[in-house]
Amino acid sequence: MAILDVRNLSVDYLTDDPLAGSGRGSIALHAVENVGFRLEQGRSLGLVGESGCGKTTVMMALLRLLPQEGRIVHGQVLFDGQDLLQYSEAEMRQVRWRGISMVFQGAMNALNPVRTIESQMVEALRLHSIIEQPRAARQRAGELLQLVGIPPRRGRQYPHQYSGGMRQRAVIAMALACNPRILIADEPTTALDVMIQAQILELLEQLQAELYLSLVMVTHDLGMVAEICDDVLVMYAGMVAEYASSDAIFNNPQHPYTQRLLEAFPDVEKPGSTLASIPGSPPRLDDLPPGCRFEPRCQCQWREAICAQKVPPLVEIEPGHCVACHWARRI
Amino acid sequence: MESLKKFLRNPMGVLGALMLLVVVCAAIFAPWLAPYDPKQRVEVTPEDILAPPDAQHLLGRDDAGKDVLSLLIYGARVSLLVGFTASFMSMFIGTTVGLVAGYYGGRIGNALMRLVDFLLVVPDLPLMLVIIAVWGRGLWKIVMVISLLGWTYTARLVRSQVLSIKERQFVLRARSIGAGSLRIIVRHVFPQVLPLIIAQAVLDISVSILYESSLAFLGLGDPTLVSWGMMLNFAFERAVSRQAWWFLLPPGLAIVWVSLALILIGNTLDEIVNPRLRTHHLFDARRMVALVAEGEAAAE
Amino acid sequence: MEAQPILRVYDLCKYFPISRGVWDTLTRKPRRYVRAVDGVSFVMQRGEILALVGESGSGKTTVGMNVLGLQRPTRGHILLDGYDVTEWAQGHGPTLETDGGKPPTLPQAQGKAGSELCLATLSWRRRVMLLRERAQMIFQDPYESLNPRQKVFDIVAEPVEIHHLARSREEKEERVRAALETCGLAPADHFWGRFPAELSGGQRQRVVIAGALVLEPKLLVADEPVSMLDVSIRAEILNLLHALRRERGITILYTTHDLATAGFFTDRMAVMYLGRIVELGPTAEVLSEPRHPYTRALISVVPVPNPRRRRKRTILQGEIPNPIDLPSGCRFHPRCPDAAPKCRETDPQLRPVAPGHEVACLA
User: Fold this and answer.
1) DSSP string for residues in C339-351
2) Which residues of B155-184 are buried (b: 16+ CB within 10 A; e: fewer)?
3) Which pLDDT belongs to residue A116?
4) Of B280, C320, C57, which Cα lies nearest the Cα of A166?
5) A133 phi and psi angles, rounded to 5 deg
């Protein structure tokens, strides 16, 4: 059974309507619409999309960490069969960090600079009432650091004494403090060098195997997704464009956006090949087209009037391969 | 302008602006607003001295028999004049010093900052007293003295801002296209510090007014002009024993009113203008949403 | 006559001193330096695109800054279009005791005939202006490299004003229009009234490129120009740079940490590690037949967009050591999978292993 089953999740952001003046009349920007996916225990999902497509919003929504302007309009988030959207704040606190844990974007730069790494981990452990006594907590902190490849004695050091890669490991260790079943990592390697990136990915794969962890990687880097994710969800302008296994996405992409995205990704093993780009930019959230959101930039040969008029439904063209395009061919 | 709209949304800022407007109008329209001209000689009888308020003199009369209300209104002129001028001059000196010290750094920067430190350490008011006592009294002398001692805070503020601005990539780009130091300072660095300077200037006006009032209160004001400080001076010396509160309270309250108005405005400006950490829009979905809506309003 | 290379870099070194405490000064401890660049030499022909690849701390950005004279080299010489840039540099670096400050007597080390005379007669400011007209930089962060309070027109027109390239307002407008439209921002008047905040990342980067182009430089140093842009717009910017080379013969020095984009449009590639070039050769050859262990490891870990192609990844352990206390001998030996005892003793120099392909490795 899937440990996480998200169905028809839609999130709006309320913002002041610039035309109506402050306060009066706010418009709702549909940041995320009808996003759904399933995550099995021990598997990893890559949530791919460019900036502003709503992928971080989806993750924040399922942990109920949206900012004040955010509203979950409808949907279900079934974690182990229970709908998280129905939980009270107190119940959510039991889920966050213990059931589902998250490494936020830029978390490695958000460590408290005036406290040692160990003390920050001990704080997390005691805050979540996992371990109360300081000594036991410090021991556990040491174990966690070891788990991510940092010698435990370095726990007494401060964040500025760690390199970028080590800080990212420390943050991952903190996220694993309460033995969560799911770990969400938002752009875990964006600011890191390619070698350190490889180290972190190797670490995540190892952790996934050792702890039987489920991973969700939110990123714009297709390469990283190809390396370690089993399934891929491609988002565009707040909606799901394609959802399939990693192999299917990379070797048999059906959505025009996915295809173009792959063509825009340079391949180091094929130097000199042409690199495509997608002209234009994603639609503004308060000016969404009535039909398919990718239509204005789509150069697919089967493009027709219906694309601009009707939002394409997410259709399962093959078992485990869903596409939201009017012209996705059936195999 | 966007900043103006933000300012108008802040009730404290608007309140301060209105309060200041009252005083500015009083100063500008003094000849029409004041019931009597303080410069005119008055026939005085012993009952007129420090007479309590009545129908003809709403705030009573001072120790020379003159109408306190008129004195108060005309006094606004002096205070505002001194305040704005001294503040402007000290802003000018402070900004220049701060820009030079921050941008060039090195020995010049160090020397300038040591000068700033020196002036900051010396207590302002006693030094002003000494200078005025030696140099002589007069309105412009007061303005000069206040501004020569008041620029140091701005200089420090500007310098610390400049230190961080000059490391930004657009300054490097300006260098790479061949811009000389002067152009970079004027075209690229200064516009970034300007908002902070404006916010600081407003607060500085209030400080200058307080200094002028203090100097006048201590008897070193311009003897030819009436200012609130001088009124306080005379009131303190002569009115307290007679319990003529109408002479003592109004100038004090007026000073408080103006200072409060300026502080409210200054704080509001500071809130609007303070550089907050800007997260890169690629990393923050929420900011992207806000930017999107903003970007459109700007594009329209 | 053989065409002269447009850029020649000889033994470029850039050291940043670490500030010392009072105790260290009193006990006369030797000064320590961050050796950001420690002996880099290469040559660029006109119209060539060279990729300078390396991770953070490799010194690639510092090389770019020194080539343009935005930093003063600690040692070494840079000859741009025959002129000695090191004389021109305005920077904030310290200068170690140089060997008299004269160009080394290497073959082809002479600058353009008469160029030294020309330079000597000009003022320092004039010399800097000459340099700026020949070489320009494209920066990494399009969100930070434009003055947020300047309109696009002013941003692109500023170089024209500084160098007095236009005699009238119309001429200035013409140049700005030409630059903007070459960079794909057409019609120009649609864009030039806007502020940078109103443009997307790709558009901003185009404005930066237009601002550099308006001076008609011969050399462009592009410092990671696309790493902060979305994947789908990277190709546009890179294609633009490629077109500039094709149509105008502009030489491009492209700095990046992304081997894949380097492979896409560059002619030659130089791989840097800890301030030195460890491998230099034609891009296709370096990517398909890497000779240096670091290059091999780097290529093996670059993600490819296909899960079926599981390659053997050589993931190096640890991090790049800090450039203050360099390892003895070959600076890569502590992490090198093929390290031998001799690597700890001898510091390898670049030597040719194939035509046009050099490697700094003892193996």
Assistant:
1) --GGGGT-----E
2) bbbbbebbeebbebbbbbbbbbbbbeeebb
3) 93
4) C320
5) -70, 135
Residue B288 or residue C274, greater confidence: C274
Q: CB-based contact (8 Å) between B173 and chain C? A: yes
Tell me which residue of C159, C219, C201, C211 sits closest to C180, measured CA to CA.
Answer: C211
Angle at C28 between CA C25 and CA C29, to 5 degrees: 95
Q: Which residue of A has its CA nearest to C316?
A: A195
Place of tokens 């889920």: A95
State the smallest CA–CA distance between residue B267 and chain C in angstroms. 24
Nearest to B293 by CA among C108, A254, C194, A13: A13
- Cα-Cα end-to-end distance for chain C: 38
- Cα Rg for chain B, rounded, in angstroms? 24
CA distances from C284 to B152, C52, C267 (A): 61, 14, 8
Q: What is the DSSP letter of C6?
A: S
Q: What is the pLDDT of residue C119?
A: 55
List A171's β-bridge partners, or say none: none
- ipTM of the complex in this document: 0.85
Alpha-carbon gap: A101 to the closest alpha carbon of chain B (Å): 19
Sign of CA dihedral B16, B21, B27, B30: negative
- Measured distance CA(C63)–CA(C135) in Å, rounded: 14
Pick from B9, B284, B289: CB nearest A29: B289
Cβ-based contacts of A35 with chain B (< 8 Å): none
Q: Measuring CA to CA, how many Å separate C297 from each of A221, C281, C290, C300?
A: 20, 17, 9, 5
Strands A231-236 and A315-318: unpaired
Pair of tokens at residue B275: 């550089």
Distance from CA of B170 to the nearest CA of C (A): 4
Query: For chain B, how many helices (H) and strands (E)?
Result: 13, 0
Inter-chain touch C236–A279, beta carbons under 8 Å: yes
What tokens does C318 get? Answer: 């640890």
Q: In chain C, which among 61-80 make CB contacts under 8 A with chain B?
A: 68, 70
- Location of structure tokens 């002041």: A16
Burial (CB < 10 A; 0-12, 13-18, 19+), residue C63, is: buried
**What is the DSSP annotation of C190-242?**
HHTTS-GGGS-HHHHHHHHHHHHHTT--SEEEEESTTTTS-HHHHHHHHHHHH
First to last CA, chain B: 14
From the list B177, B281, B282, the residue facing C132 with the nearest CB is: B177
Pairing of strands C268-273, C276-282: antiparallel
| Cut 0.90: pTM above it | no
pLDDT at C308 over 50: yes
Closest chain B residue to A220, measured at CA: B282
Render A2-57 in DSSP notation, one character per residue. EEEEEEEEEEEEEEE-TTT-SSS-EEEEEEEEEEEEEEETT-EEEEE--TTSSHHH
Which residues on chain B are in Cβ contact (under 8 Å) with A70?
Answer: 286
* Helix, strand, or coil (residue C56): coil
Contact assignment for B283 to A29 by CB distance below 8 Å: no
Strand pairing partners for A318?
A321
Q: Mean pLDDT, chain C, as a whole number? A: 83
Q: Tell me the pLDDT of chain A averaged across its residues.
A: 87
- Note whether B119 and B149 are within 8 A (CB): yes
Neighbours of chain A (3+ CB pairs under 8 A): B, C
Given a cut of 90, whether residue C199 has pLDDT beyond it is no
Residue in this structure with the two tokens 């789908």, named with its chain if needed: C232
CB hemisphere CA count around C245 (13 angstroms): 22
In degrees and rounded to multiples of 5, residue A312 shows phi and psi of -70, 135
Q: With the CA atoms of A111, A115, A119 and A120 taken in that order, what torsion angle do they form, in degrees rounded to the nearest 10?
A: -20
B293 in A contact zone (CB under 8 Å): yes
Burial class (CB in 10 A: 0-12, 13-18, 19+), B138: middle
Across the range C326-342, mean pLDDT stands at 86
Q: What tokens does B293 get? A: 């809506």
